[in-house]
Amino acid sequence: MTDRRSALALLIGGAALAAARRVSAPADATLLFAYFSGVRGDPAGLRLARSTDGLRFDPVLGGRVLLSPTVGESRLLRDPFLTPGPRSGDPWHLLWTTGWTGVTLGHATSHDLIHWSPQRAIPVMATIPGTRNVWAPEMIWDARAGHFMLFWSSTVTGRFPETAGTSEDAYNHRLWYATTRDFVTISPPELLWDPGFSVIDATFTTDRAGGLHLIVKDETLTPERKHLRIARAASPTGPFGALSPAFTPAWVEGPTAIRTGGWTYVYYDRYRDGGWGAARSRDLVTWQDVSDRIVMPRSARHGTVVHAPAGALADLR
Predict the structure, then answer these.
(1) Sheet holding 199-206, edge to edge
(2) Rounded Cα distance, 133 and 211, in Å
(3) In Å, what is the CA distance from 184 to each residue of 25, 71, 124, 148?
(4) For strand 253-260 and strand 263-269, is the pairing parallel, antiparallel, or unpaired?
(5) Measured between alpha carbons, how far is 222 from 283 in angstroms, rounded to an integer?
(6) For the segment 219-260, what is each residue's pLDDT rounded down to a tens digit?
(7) Is the separation of the CB atoms in 306 and 45 below 8 Å?
(8) Residue 279 pLDDT > 80, yes or no?
């Protein structure tokens, strides 16, 4: 496994080792799905499900909440992003959306996915006047630079007037990022990508050669899109190549990707119709709809599918 990770790091310039680790898994690996419940009245917080085939995910510990939110503008926990640290012995990291409006994202760590560090609301957009929100944060370890890159979607009032009015409620999102080594000192936020439309729910994946790709949701309502597209990335901060045509139906969100059994699976939340969909590809160009083959917990909303290292689930029985 060490040689495999090293080879992947070299192939992609060392920048996306954590992304490769998160989305690559042998066919018989245990996969974890981190999610939140969309059922009204359910307690807020992190829940987990597990799978051995990438198709059926069963709730862990009966679907109980493993981390209840205590920080942020609204003390919500939505869109959880879960990833192991880049080095042996590192804890898991969890990021999440803390509110519909505000300038913070949530962060906590754990070595066993049951006991968690104190939660922190990190004010990543506090220095950008007019920021309305920080949605669906994720992160990637940049091995070359030796830091984590945090990224998310934000609407900043008055920015990008050319696409004003194309999304609901005057939202007009673009992708932003900041870097950190310790989650205490955070760099000033910078624009990560303006693809020319309102964009949310970005996530990275890798191809078979280790090349980095970015999946995004086109959030445009007028004309109606609301679908997922993918672009090659030269590094976590770009430049980004041409976007593919849509590879999902409209009205989906929250993509999360893994590689297993020779396929890349992209799972997505069919939030308007309910339930989950999935597409798979061997080359990230030609896609098959496999939505009718996947089973997710009944309450699951936007989350992360991740390969669980050996022994990581010892306490989740």
Answers:
(1) 199-206, 212-218, 227-233
(2) 31
(3) 31, 15, 11, 12
(4) antiparallel
(5) 31
(6) 999 999 999 999 999 999 999 999 999 999 999 999 999 998
(7) no
(8) yes
Total-model pTM = 0.92
Residue 289 DSSP one-character state? E
Within a 10 A sphere around the Cβ of 191, how many other Cβ atoms? 14
Count of Cβ atoms closer than 10 Å to residue 55 Cβ: 16
Query: For the domain with range 2-307, which CATH number is right: 3.40.50.80, 2.115.10.20, 3.90.180.10, 3.30.230.10?
Result: 2.115.10.20
Neighbours of 103 (CB within 10 A): 22
Chain length of the chain:
317
Alpha helix segments (H runs only) across the chain:
2-11, 17-23
Which sign does the torsion angle of CA 261, 264, 270, 271 carry? positive
Q: Which residues of 167-284 form beta strands (DSSP E)?
A: 173-180, 190-193, 199-206, 212-218, 227-233, 253-260, 263-269, 276-281
Dist. CA 71–CA 308, nearest whole Å: 27
Q: How far apart are CA 206 and CA 281, in angstroms?
A: 12
Quick one: tokens of 104? 């913070």
Structure-block tokens of residue 241: 């190549």
Per-residue pLDDT tens digits for 9-41: 333 344 444 454 455 544 446 899 999 999 999
Distances from the Cα of 21 to the Cα of 26, 136, 153, angstroms: 11, 20, 23
